Amino acid sequence: MNPFDDDKPKKKTEHEIGSDISSLSADELTARIALLEAEITRLATERDAKSKGRATAESFFKR
Q1: pLDDT (tens digit, 0 to 9) for every residue of the chain, 63 residues total?
Q2: What is the pLDDT of residue 39?
Q3: Alpha carbon of 36 to those of 28, 32, 40, 43, 62: distances in Å?
Q4: How far is residue 38's CA from residue 36's CA, in Å, rounded to a whole number?
Q5: What distance in Å separates the CA atoms of residue 50 and residue 27, rounded to the nearest whole number?
Q6: CA-CA-CA-CA torsion for 46, 51, 54, 55, nearest 10 degrees?
Q7: Which of 51, 47, 19, 57 is CA-nearest to residue 35?
Q8: Whose CA, among 41, 49, 52, 58, lies 20 to 30 Å from 27?
Q9: Is 15 within 8 Å of 38 (Cβ atoms)?
């Protein structure tokens, strides 16, 4: 084992849409669900911020 392996950042658990999940345990599935829910929240927050910015810009230019 390479002594420098501990210095490398650990790879985050990722999920590829449509990937085979039949070999995952219940705990692994729960972790994937949490990961995807966090990503949905992140995407929704960004969408809302962009929508708010667009609405502000539209109201400014309609004057």
Answers
A1: 566 666 766 666 688 899 999 999 999 999 999 999 999 999 999 999 999 888 887 787 876
A2: 96
A3: 12, 6, 6, 10, 39
A4: 5
A5: 35
A6: -150
A7: 19
A8: 41
A9: no
pLDDT reported for residue 3: 62
Structure-token pair, residue 59: 């109201």
DSSP 2: -
Note whether 8 and 16 are within 8 A (CB): no
Tokens encoding 47? 């969408």
pLDDT, residue 55, reads 80
Question: In sequence order, what are the residues at sequence separation of 6 or more whose Cβ sits closer than 8 angstroms to the Cβ of residue 35?
Answer: 13, 14, 15
In the prediction, which pLDDT does 15 show? Answer: 85
Q: Quick one: tokens of 15?
A: 């999920």
CA distance 59 to 63: 7
